[in-house]
Amino acid sequence: MRKPIIAGNWKLNKTVSEAVKFVSELKEKVGGISDVDIIVCPPFTAVSKVADVLRGSNIRVGAQDAYWEEEGAFTGEISPLMVKEAGCSYVILGHSERRAMFGDTNNTVNKKLKAVLNAGLTPIVCVGEKLEEREKGITKDIVKDHIQGSLHGLKKEEMSEVVIAYEPVWAIGTGKTATPEQAQEVHAYIRELLADLFGGGVAESVRIQYGGSIKPDNIKNLMSQKDIDGGLVGGASLKVDSFEKLVKYREG
Ligand code: PEP
Question: Ligand 1 centre and the CA of 72: distance in Å?
């Protein structure tokens, strides 16, 4: 049985004080929930203070990226160990915005992934096709390339620690959600790919989140699909009441 996992990716939103206010309120609203893993991913600047507020709660903190080196002359970068000590237990890797705007490739995602696993953190590895790729009918080729390239060289036991997020780029921040059937088809395909690479047992245990314009009114149908184990949420994770509804999707 895979435990549902709902993560809020705040992107470049919220100052430290805004982030602290948000999680102080959220903690009160979702405190009783133990059957969903709840994660917030603030900007780096807010991680430490957010983690202080959430210590001892049922909400975990994630970083939005991490570099593969432990230390050195890498201006502007931050290491897995740094985010871990600041209070993170998860790290998002290979988000499509980073692939499109900040030069992330399968190769750099793979290096980051290994560094994040080495630090004992849980990576959330993002994969997904652009609109023109879906229209060309090459969604599965793109997803296969992202999965094989990003996860290259991982051992079975390492893969068991990884969370995958399928995020069709055309659905991110656009208001266009993939239908539950469209998402399920790709999630099932990802599980097949994982079975080929790591064996059926690992493939069955890995959690695959959907991401792309998830909202309180569409999450329940998405979560009802067999291979959808959670959500990676941007816009709808920025307000306490909508994130609360997402976490409580079963009640919706
Ligand atoms: C995301 O950034 O991962 C995302 C899915 O954003 P949104 O929910 O806003 O589409």
Answer: 32
